[in-house]
Amino acid sequence: MPFSFCTPPPDLRSLVIESTRVRLVTISEQYMEDIYRDFTADITRYMMPALPSDISETRAFILSALLGLDRGDDLHLVICRQGSNEFLGICGLHGSRDLSGRSAQYFQPENCGSAGRQNY
């Protein structure tokens, strides 16, 4: 089956993307404590949503992320260190099935440079 952003694969909840240094896995309640503990005021200063006041807000964020996944609008991934499975953070792809009015940019890797890059 060809890949399409508009037609999600059958089971994105079990998605795993691996490299030599990190694993990306679909967000789940398994990582709730890690997300709650590591998302401090310094990290979330410029993020939406704001810093959770208690762990129930982190759980609500995860459940909302999974609803977006099921709708095919968003994909939130947990970043773990390869081998140790140490929690490093989360990332997400956010979009919509309706791509009208949206723009995107593409940069070829050789033109991006290495400033600010983490080599995972």
Give a structural overview.
The chain has helices at residues 32-38, 41-44, 55-71; strands at 16-18, 22-26, 74-81, 87-94. With 120 residues, it is of the alpha+beta class. It has one domain (12-97): Aminopeptidase. Strands 1-2-3-4 form a four-stranded antiparallel beta sheet, with helices on one face. A hairpin with a 5-residue loop joins strand 3 and strand 4 (87-94). Helix 1 (32-38) crosses helix 3. It is globular, with a radius of gyration of 16 Å.
The fourth-level CATH homologous superfamily is Gcn5-related N-acetyltransferase (GNAT)
Domain unit count: 1
User: What general outline do the C-alpha atoms trace?
Assistant: globular
Sketch the topology as an H/E string, one letter per element: EEHHHEE
The CATH architecture name reads 3-Layer(aba) Sandwich
CATH level-3 fold name: Aminopeptidase
- Counted by DSSP, the helix tally is 3
Main sheet overview: 4 strands, antiparallel
If strands are numbered along the chain, what order do they take across the biggest sheet? 1-2-3-4
- Please state the CA-atom Rg, rounded to the nearest Å: 16 Å
Q: Into which percentage range does the β-strand content fall?
A: 15-25%
State the name of the first-level CATH class.
Alpha Beta
Number of strands: 4
Percent of residues in helices comes to: 10-25%
Mean pLDDT level: 77
Distance between the termini: 30 Å
Q: What is the SS-derived class?
A: alpha+beta
- Contiguous runs where pLDDT drops below 50 for at least 5 residues: 101-120
